[in-house]
Amino acid sequence: MLIRITLAAVGMLFLVARVPAQITLTDAFPSLPSFSLPIECVSAGDGTGRLFVVEQRGKIWVFNAAAASPQRRLFLDLTGVVSTTGSETGLLGLAFHPQYATNGQFFVDYTSSSSGSLKSYIARYIVSATNPDSAVKTSETIFLSVDQPYENHNGGKIAFGPDGYLYISFGDGGSGNDPQNNGQSLTTALGKILRIDVNSSTLPYNYTIPPTNPFASNSQGYRKEIYAYGLRNPWKFSFDALTGTLWAGDVGQGAREEIDTIVAGGNYGWRVMEGKICTPNVNPDCRDTAGTILPLWDYGRGSGDVSITGGYVYRGNAIPSLRGRYVYADYASGRIWALTLNGTQPATNALLLDAPYTVSSFAQDRERELYVVSYGTGRLYRITGPATDTGSSALPRTFSLSENFPNPFNPTTTIRYEVPVASAIRLSVFDLLGHEVRVLVDSTVSAGSYEATLDAAGLASGIYLYRLRAGSFEQTRKMVLTR
Q1: 414-439: b (≥16 Cβ within 10 Å) or e
Q2: Is 320 helix (H, G, I), strand (E, B) or coil?
Q3: What pLDDT digit, counting tens, does each position of 317-334 carry?
Q4: Which residue in 270, 290, 265 sits closest to 282, CA to CA?
């Protein structure tokens, strides 16, 4: 079992545990041709076993995932409607009405400049009455449109919650550092998760405001659709099929990527907060952070990690070791993790595997087994693992402190150490005069292999020593900080 402890510049600790290496990915549907820039895959929830794949430039494909050799069909083509420029615009979201099997309604989220300026649209379509694998393109009804000042940070995920309402994610509108402060403004839909009732309407809208929305009765001019705010770019969110908890992965600016559980009226901090830190270059003095909700988990940018892709809490049966864990990825690095939250202890994070391709989304089939959607390869991969929970890998036999890497370093380096039995340990960094300049770990830890990442911001160039103490064990090594 490998556990990573990270010391951020503000001194916060995070725990990472590695679960068994048997978790793998396999091409789920080798008979299908590759998709072009797929960004979403969803089930209609109608009992047919079909999956629907959304391509960013405007096409939705459907196929029967339960077939031995499934063949895809074009369900809807919006290539003449949606944006075709910009890396974050296009057809971004798909959600089927909870009663889709009887009413044939589904919703999409797309960006378009057809009106002369860039807007995000939430639109409803109807499936063909004679062909269940084809939608009626002319059936479009626009429910919501939102001006987009820039081409990035459009969010785009939509999904029906267990309450029957439609939830919609919008990013802060784009550019750097949220120049219009949309994340904290309650008069705009940008930087928010919205919630609307599509089953009734109140003029001039094709929807109504759920009475339990946090600002449903406000008289200050706040958007009544707002469910939660202070989000930078919530690219993917999902509901736990067992508990109904709303999980979101919010893409960071340049320092932290974060995972939140979203509650009504919650302020998740952007732009004054980025992850668990005050936003660098925006709020270095940590002002106006009162009332913000810190993420369950965040991670820094390094080793190719630059953009979180939110996933699902696993509720399938094929991989018992993953049950109840939130599975997510980093889009760029391809690393896939599982976050465990039991409600009484801090969250723990397990690295499942390091995929060799970009991960734009996750998907669930009707049995709630998980798939990975790869933007780069255009393939859908099934997450597979042992049918029994085999537990952790072998524990270390002795105490040990390894060479840091990289070395020399600037400004971060990683230190690995091993603990054979539960022990009170202290891992510290000293200058050559013997002054303790950092304490990385000072706590009791379980047996396992660990990593501690030092951010040396504020330290001068030179030679430093790092020392591990655990009972009678003590070991010291040398590292070099270069500027």
Answers
A1: bbbbbbeeebebebbbeeeeeeebbe
A2: helix
A3: 899 889 889 999 999 999
A4: 270
